Amino acid sequence: MKAFFNGQFVPIAEARVSVLDRGFLYGDGLFETIRIAGGRPFRWAAHLERMARTAGCLGIRIPFEPQLLREAAVELARVNGVSAGVVRLVVSRGQGPRGYSALAADSPTLVMTTHLPAVPAPGENECWRLVTSPLRILEADVLTAHKHCNRLLQVLARSEAERRGVDEALLLNSRGEVAEASSGNVFWTDEAGLVTPALETGILPGITRSVVLELGRGMGWRVREVRCPLEDARSCAGWFETSSGRGLVPVTEIDGEAVRPDRRVALLRAALEQTVAQECGVGVAVDRLEAGSDSARV
Amino acid sequence: MKAFFNGQFVPIAEARVSVLDRGFLYGDGLFETIRIAGGRPFRWAAHLERMARTAGCLGIRIPFEPQLLREAAVELARVNGVSAGVVRLVVSRGQGPRGYSALAADSPTLVMTTHLPAVPAPGENECWRLVTSPLRILEADVLTAHKHCNRLLQVLARSEAERRGVDEALLLNSRGEVAEASSGNVFWTDEAGLVTPALETGILPGITRSVVLELGRGMGWRVREVRCPLEDARSCAGWFETSSGRGLVPVTEIDGEAVRPDRRVALLRAALEQTVAQECGVGVAVDRLEAGSDSARV
Fold first, then answer.
1. Is B2 a catalytic residue?
2. Taking the mean position of all CA atoms in its chain, how far away is CA A282?
3. Residue B104: band (very low, low, confident or very high) from pLDDT cuts 50, 70, 90
4. CB-CB: which of A15, A27, A102 is closest to B26?
5. What is the pLDDT of residue A294?
6. Residue A142 to residues B27, B112, B135, B152: CA-CA distances in angstroms?
7. What is the pTM of this model?
8. Active-site residue, B257 included
9. What is the pLDDT of residues A44-76, one digit of tens each?
10. Residue B291: pLDDT band with limits 50, 70, 90
11. What does the alpha-carbon distance between residue B5 and residue B3 come to, in Å, rounded to a whole number?
12. Of these residues, A2, A109, A114, A147, which one is catalytic?
């Protein structure tokens, strides 16, 4: 297994950063998790645009161009034999003097690794059970909309959900509005169509979320982004979670109460998988597509 | 220069963690910065107690006993020739599978490094100028009282202060109350005595803060921990910042307005330095004190 590490392909065991790297010390970095299908990244440009926004907010320089990174991601997936999975791209601010000041730190660390999809163990749910976390997303926090490396809130929420015997934590914001899950965005359905928390609730603007919104609109459904208290949403049908790592995962239970299924969820999941397969050219040899088509590069 | 890295003394260049370490990926760890004087740590027990509380909150196992770590810190300071400076102790959750779940991650990484005190450059202020940060501490956040490795708020606040040409950022909480600086606690004075933000404002309970509170009381001054809006505190005299790395640093300016000096600040600073020197046995050979006295071990 190899990693793309500061411009080189190295064995993963050799991809090591100094204990003085600010990523390790302060979570002073950002990341993207990008789906790989047919050996190619899905919605690369959208991920890189989000990354650039976060890098701008944090003042971290991305040390390689998006196109070079895309070629490296495809090559990494190839050498690691990952035709379906994810690539994780992490950029930290790198090393600097002791302390929070970032003035003398301008040697960012960039690493990409590939990961196989998390396949449910035999007997494990392919649907997820959620519990509401007592931890709250603070929607006033300027960092909430960015995919940075300060993830203790998500780590603690997820750990507590697992202690309570379920799969995932549902996070509300400080106003009690439904925001997101620890590792993805959430949706539900009502008579009118598809519903998901608005960006103003303090969520991360997920790439898969945006694709699902496109697909829902394409199906002619009414699609709403809302600020909604949990008590108004919990009894709705068709809850699901979206993420680049897992696609669309139906939610079967929230806080011990069964979620009523909605057949539109299966339609959306199929449409998402079809979109991924089409855009990534699943079934088309990577060599041919990469060499022959500019459209594969966005 | 050496580091104490997972139980071994290694050259600092060899103290490297995997890019899959959750410290690097998510800031999933904790740290302490402990003052070294006369080659010995100041208030070791207080730092280790705070670390244990944070480790309990995060569910991270500290892989060595406090006494072994203290001996390693003294040895590290000795081999690195640091008789006055700081030791930084970092513990991350270590490596685990991809994702926020910490279930399969139980190989924590522990590292200690030593650092010389930041000596002001010629012409540089030994006093600090502060600006109020537009970023806010969210006092409802369960993590605010813990010295964890999610430090982007502090990094961003400090960066912005430096862009504005001053030394340090003053952070308010979401209610507009004075909380702390990016890298230390703050105090000011009034006719009655010494004032500092209460723990409930969302601050980190600093070790140097607690020593200064002891010293102020020992001097017979009235000492108050308060929830106080910035507008009520800004015009007060005798502002200063405390941290393990720098001790007590007078603040000369806040948001461009000069802070009136108070002679009690110099008294406190001298008392702090005297306490550090006494407790650490400055001037007494490390070998003799470490071998002969149990009191040196707390």
1. no
2. 21
3. confident
4. A27
5. 44
6. 18, 32, 8, 11
7. 0.94
8. no
9. 999 999 999 999 999 999 999 999 999 999 999
10. low
11. 6
12. A147
Whether residue A180 lies in the annotated active site: yes
Instruction: Specify the residue for token string 């601050």.
Output: B203
Give the type of residue at B39: G
Q: Closest Cα to residue A148, out of A37, A251, A31, A241?
A: A31
Contacts 24+ apart (CB under 8 A), B74-77: B74/B39, B74/B40, B74/B41, B74/B286, B74/B290, B75/B4, B75/B9, B76/B2, B76/B3, B76/B4, B76/B9, B76/B112, B76/B113, B76/B114, B77/B36, B77/B39, B77/B40, B77/B114
- B297: DSSP letter: G
Instruction: List the structure tokens of B293.
Output: 């006295």
Size of interface A-B (CB pairs under 8 A): 184
Best to test chain A binding among B4, B152, B156 (most A CBs inside 10 Å):
B152
> To which residue do tokens 């000369």 refer?
B252
Q: What is the largest CA-CA distance in chain A?
A: 57
Tell me the shortest Cα–Cα distance from A115 to chain B, in angstroms: 8
Retrieve residue A226's tokens: 């809302």
Query: Are the C-beta atoms of A184 and A243 separated by less than 8 Å?
Result: yes
Q: Which residue has the tokens 């060899």?
A: B14
| Residues 6+ away with beta carbon under 8 Å from A73 | A4, A34, A36, A41, A44, A87, A89, A112
Distance from CA of A55 to the nearest CA of B (A): 12
pLDDT more than 90, % of chain B: 88
Report how far residue B73's alpha carbon sits from residue B164's, in angstroms, rounded to the nearest whole number: 37
Q: Cβ–Cβ contacts within 10 Å for residue A191, how many? A: 7
- Determine which one of B109, B139, B144, B147 is catalytic: B147
Tokens of A58: 């944090």
> CB neighbours (10 Å) of residue B9?
15
CA distance A150 to chain B (A): 5
The token duo for A160 is 């507590």
Return the beta strands (E) in B8-127 as ranges.
8-11, 16-18, 29-37, 40-41, 85-92, 109-115
Would you tell me how many other CB atoms lie within 10 Å of the CB of residue A76?
A: 20
Q: Tokens for A233? A: 């949403």
Taking residue A150's Cβ as centre, other Cβ atoms within 10 Å add up to: 25
pLDDT band at B287 (very low <50, low <70, confident <90, very high): low
Two tokens, residue B91 = 């513990």
